[in-house]
Amino acid sequence: MIFKSPHAPVTIPEISLTDYVLRRVEELGDKPALIDGPTGRTYTYSQLPGYIKRLAAGFAAHGVTKGDVLAIYSPNLPEYALAFHAVATLGAATTMVPPLFTDEEIIKQLKNSGAKYLLTIPQLMENARVVAQAIGIRKIFVIGEADGAISFASLLIGGDKTPDVQIDPREDVAALPYSSGTTGFPKGVMLTHRNLVAMMRLMEANHAFSQDDTIVCVVPMYHLYGLHIVVNLGLSQGATIVTVPRYDLEQFLQALEHYKVTVAPLVPPLVLALSRAPQLDQHDLSALRLIHCGAATLADSVASACSARLGCEIRYGYGLTEVSPLSHASLSDSSKHTPGSVGYCLPNTECRIVDYTTGAELGPNREGEIWIRGPQVMKGYASNEQATSEMINSEGWLRTGDIGYCDADGQLFVVDRLKELIKTNGRQVAPAELEALLLSHSAIADAAVIPSPDEKSGEVPKAFVVLKTEASAEEIMEFVSARVAPYKRIKRVEFVSEIPKSPAGKILRRVLKERERRSVSHQK
């Protein structure tokens, strides 16, 4: 059966993303819109249109035009959002690069996305120059000042005359985040203006936050959760957004207290930290009324402990980058929440549970693969029609690769993943990427990487390794660490005589995962 939303359908305007986000700026006037948490640097609502227009004019003067891709390689800053919208108004797209990526990882994303321009910060300029030279980036822009880069400030001084660009909301891509999808290496997710506007309209009906809220943005803006669900949705609602460039518990708590934050969108490891950290007793967090938790599974015990300690409600969401990024969320009425559930379908959104062996459609309380259909489903993967057709069928249903079930009321429960991604601290790690790297080590004959349960991070990458010459676990972990972002590092290594595989040669990860679960259970 098809599980539907308890919400009434909503209309989705045929409008550009930036026009939708800024539609209320006149009535909001001098209310703070974006605040840099550490410094207090503030942009008001009345200032947003002018800054975005002048930035767009500055980018256009340096060659950015419709259909181009600009990469933002930066931590959370107010200027991140301004640049994103300036690029969107030109009919260009932004691809978001994690600051912790290695040069090799950045080069792969920039090449695949077709990025021609790069925006960064002075602290990352050394890496930016290397990757820009490697792939022929036309120009580097910098938030601040740095040799060899065009300053953010200089983009603002040439006036606000921009090219006359016609945006087709259904076709023109505004954001190009990267996701591994159900399997394999990261792919560019093409999200149109309409996808992103639809996502905001759906979340508005769910009463995620309001004009009266002050929201902290500590989840990274290179992830749609931070950029779109926190910043864009928050701005469209008239809330004040406080950006925090990186997670540091004390700095985070100071921001919550100083700015009297009312809503904190977080990932499970941060909720766990708040449930246990002794530092909480030194801060007045009485303004905090709501925590939104997404990006990975949150244990009920942790949620209850955090909620009781802070005296605030916790609501949940479920989705993936390919759905802009949510399909389900808790209702605002907490009495309708069942522990363990990630919520109900958002408006205009449908869900099916499909038997992953037979393809049969399943009814309530039966586990299968979660399929999603709605206006927030991506246009497709950039330059990858095959991967797109494998992900989205002819009827518009997107295969999530997650295993779950819906109860009779339509609440979704996610229990496992068919897909091979590892989620560590809310970030995605593709096993295939780490396996390819491991196989480049001269001492390794074969390897498989799976998620290993971890109380702090949710999951961490663990490698099963078959050696052909002698090597230690420490040596192998150091080899990988030098070549990937910190969150992708392999934390555990187990040496085995062979990797279990199907007759077709596919790694039988389920065998290894079950073995790992038994091992962890036995240790407890």
Write the layout of secondary structure elements.
Elements: E1 2-4, H1 17-21, H2 25-28, E2 32-36, E3 42-44, H3 48-61, E4 69-73, H4 78-89, E5 93-97, H5 103-113, E6 117-120, H6 125-135, E7 139-142, E8 150-151, H7 152-155, E9 173-175, E10 178-179, E11 187-192, H8 193-205, E12 214-217, H9 224-236, E13 240-243, H10 249-258, E14 263-266, H11 268-276, E15 290-293, H12 300-310, E16 313-318, E17 328-329, E18 344-345, E19 350-354, E20 368-373, E21 380-381, H13 385-391, E22 398-406, E23 412-417, E24 422-424, E25 427-429, H14 431-438, E26 444-454, E27 458-467, H15 473-481, E28 492-495, H16 509-523
Parallel strand pairs: 2-13, 4-5, 4-6, 6-7, 7-8, 12-13, 14-15, 15-16, 27-28
Antiparallel strand pairs: 1-19, 2-3, 9-11, 10-11, 11-21, 16-17, 17-18, 19-20, 20-22, 22-23, 24-25, 26-27
Short description:
This protein is α/β, with parallel strands linked by helices.
Features:
28 strands; five-stranded antiparallel beta sheet; globular; 2 domains; alpha/beta; GMP Synthetase, Chain A, domain 3; 30% helix; 524 residues; Rossmann fold
